[in-house]
Amino acid sequence: MAGHRKTIFISSVQKELQAERRAIKDFVRNDPLLRRFFDVFLFEDLPAQDRRSDAVYLHEAGRCDVYVGLFGDEYGLESTDGLSPTELEFDKATADGKPRLIFVKAGDDKARHPKMLKLIGKAGSQLIRRRFADTHDLTAALYAALVEHMEHSGDLRTMPFDASTCNRATLDDLSSAKIKSFLAAARRERNYPLPANISRDKALTHLNLLDHGRPTNAAVLLFGRDPQRFLITSEVKCLHFHGTRVQKPIPSYQIYKGTVFELVDQALDFVLSKINRRVGTRAYSVQAPVAYELPLEAVREAIVNAVAHRDYTSNASVQVMLFADRLEVWNPGELPSPLTPELLRLPHASIPRNPLVAEPLYLARYIEKAGSGTLDMIERCRNISLPEPDFEQRAGQWTVTLWRDWLTAEALSRFNLNERQSMAIAYIKIHGKISNAEYQQVTHAIKKTATRDLNALKERGLIEQKGSRGPGVHYVLARKGDIMGTMGT
Prior knowledge:
Helix content is 38%, strand content 16%. It has helices spanning 18-30, 34-37, 53-63, 85-95, 114-124, 135-153, 176-190, 200-206, 217-223, 260-274, 296-309, 355-363, 373-383, 409-412, 419-431, 436-443, 447-459; strands at 6-11, 38-41, 66-71, 100-105, 129-132, 210-211, 214-215, 236-240, 252-256, 277-279, 290-292, 318-322, 326-332, 390-394, 397-403, 463-466, 474-477. Helix 1 packs across helix 6 (135-153), helix 10 (260-274) packs antiparallel against helix 11 (296-309) and helix 11 runs antiparallel to helix 13 (373-383).
């Protein structure tokens, strides 16, 4: 195997991160798995050569199979072009299309060399960075990153989590009644060919939920009598706060357990029971229509995506948190490559993390396959004059935020707005933004009055300015205000 091992190139300021560089080499060399696949190149281990050092390290950076960048406080000795070996090595690996793993030593960014801060920013705009506090953090993060790299490259072939056998579970731990209920729904919603009265084993086989006759993790998550007995963190935690921050005591806190279908239904009911709703008339239907302050479909989409696409190997659980100004849905895991938060606002492919879990959710019409869920959420929020949802990666948690309309008539009445300012707030709710020129046109105010009114709205925390100068300056609704900490729902 030695002749087929790949080379890891360690790039860093050698003096500052000498211990970390050596720790990586020792860790890889002594780990039973990694040493089968990798060697580590350290520049300081090379014998003296009649070659310029910069030529040697750039040559080795070009020859390596995996580039590992360790970024600390120091930038390193600069060349005549003002670039350090670390940045030159990073640029070389980038230009050659090498897999790059970047680890940033934790600390105060104010202590970092300005050029190192810039390099960290450059790397972060291209790929995910991971921070480490000590060598234990570093080697643990490196191990996870290298295993993921081997899985992607095909060097290490393992079954996906949802397709793997569920440890200790047997077929008796699955509910036949839940399977039959699902089959009936799938037949009704998607014309699924299997009848509800088909045998349990045939249904599971058809859905690819058996591994040599034993239930997979997906089978337990979908149809288990007690899924959390085997997959403890597959629960969903729902929390309701009256203000805009996580603050004790928590007015309402529920932990829901069950199958993925049950988790979605329970979490959705929790949110809908806490937000405002308006009941219409029976003028056009026997049943009076109900309109929630947040789009029902957007709330369901955020929750079902979290349950379907979370990282089930994580010790964290899905969290659904309702605040006075927003709904946040957190799920463990990262957005799959090559998707980015920005791409979610454009037409994109569907890349499920757990395809065997996602397929039955699709058949029961809980989700779609077209990758249109985020676009639908954006459109539905726009349609009722709410801000667009936020999509963010936060320290290993993928977060979707739906913003509530905190500027209700009752809230606005507390600010004693003049008629022009009230008209402007209503205009922004419909059009999403307003400029000074539009304010003048809508309210028939002169420019001086418009500027004074807009500044007053901004000082009160009702609107936010976008842009600093020129015709592009406009104003949008503030997403939360200081008064929200004392307001209920």
